[in-house]
Amino acid sequence: xxxxxxxxxxxxxxxxxxxxxxxxxxxxxxxxxxxxxxxxxxxxxxxxxxxxxxxxxxxxxxxxxxxxxxxxxxxxxx
Length: 78
Prior knowledge:
The protein is mainly alpha-helical. Helix content is 60%, strand content 0%. The longest helix is centred in the N-terminal third of the chain and has 13 residues, at 13-25. Residues 1-6 have low confidence and may be disordered.
């Protein structure tokens, strides 16, 4: 397991992988996350909701599209 997963309570390896997929691809699609990680759609939904709660992705807009905001935050801090 990743060292970060051991130091942060409630963070597991799959969630860290999901965040990596979202940020590196700059795509906040539940079905894309499902295909990338090879997990059930219901599990991808749970991970996406958690990413929303943690401020990694936006809430869905009027057509259901989300944006990845984690990368934007990093570039704004510089």
